[in-house]
Amino acid sequence: MKITITARGLRKDEVFFNSPYGEGKGIWCGGAFSLGENYDVEFEINELLIRWIDILPAATHEYSLTHDKDVVVFTGRLENIEEDGTASLQIGDSLMMFECLGEPMPLGTFVRVRTAELRIYGMILVDSEVKL
Asked: Which end of the chain has the least Cβ crowding within 10 Å, N or C?
């Protein structure tokens, strides 16, 4: 996903950012960054999410990204949940992977995924390949 880093947070490597789907914050896990610069990134949720608690059906069918205090909320289409709990959420043209457990949820529906542990990895394009 493409983001623009807008501010530094209070915690080490914490950044605030804008994306085409809204605003968020997380821990930057790449090299040096510059405020106001655009980056292609991948998000990682660094916690095990619980379906029907951290992942809930969304009232809307629009992709979005918001944050409130220490919680970041992604709204997107639940694409897949594997038997081992690995799941994917579509947010526009991007897919975000995460791990979850709990009661089954219908695939293809819009859900809200809440996390307090978002990590951001900048990607580098080298000869048309994505390198992390």
From this structure: C
Which DSSP category does 51 fall into?
A: B
Pairing of strands 118-122, 38-45: antiparallel
Bridge partners, residue 51, by sequence: 55
Contacts of 127 (CB under 8 A, 6+ apart): none
Where is average pLDDT lowest: 13-17, 33-37, 62-66, 75-79? 33-37
110 within 8 A of 76, measured Cβ to Cβ: yes
CA atoms within 13 A on the CB side of 112: 14
Per-residue pLDDT, averaged over 82-97, amounts to 95
What Å distances lie between residue 75 and 114, 125, 128, CA to CA? 9, 27, 29
Nearest Cα to Cα of residue 121 among 38, 27, 37, 11: 27
Residue-level length of the chain? 132
